[in-house]
Design brief:
This protein is mainly beta and 96 residues long. It is built from one helix and six strands. This is PilZ domain-containing protein.
Length: 96
């Protein structure tokens, strides 16, 4: 197993956990908890009640990153992601 130091940015061994903020049909900002992805990385957002949401990391600044979705989110999925961030906190993101 590889040892990772620092914030584990782009760690190939890590999945990611983030709190969704500023959700729109086209994308979402996340506050990273622990490891952070790298720009260009493809991720899947795992939500309990919907299919995974695929997207690509557009930018990373300190503990925040933006994910641009591959396809616009339906209103119901946006609401699920928004509510998840407010009520349950973080969501899991995995490499896509």
């Amino acid at each position: 197993m590889n040892k990772v130091s620092g914030p584990m940015a782009g760690n190939d061994l890590a999945d990611f956990t983030g709190i969704p903020r500023h959700v729109s049909a086209e994308g979402c900002q996340f506050v990273a908890l622990g490891a952070r992805p790298v720009v260009g990385q493809v991720l899947l957002v795992l939500l309990d009640s919907t299919l995974p949401v695929a997207g690509r990391v557009r930018w990373v600044v300190e503990d925040r990153f933006a994910l641009v979705f591959d396809a616009p989110l339906a209103r119901s999925v946006r609401k699920t992601l928004e509510n998840h961030g407010r009520v349950l906190g973080a969501v899991k993101l995995v490499r896509g």
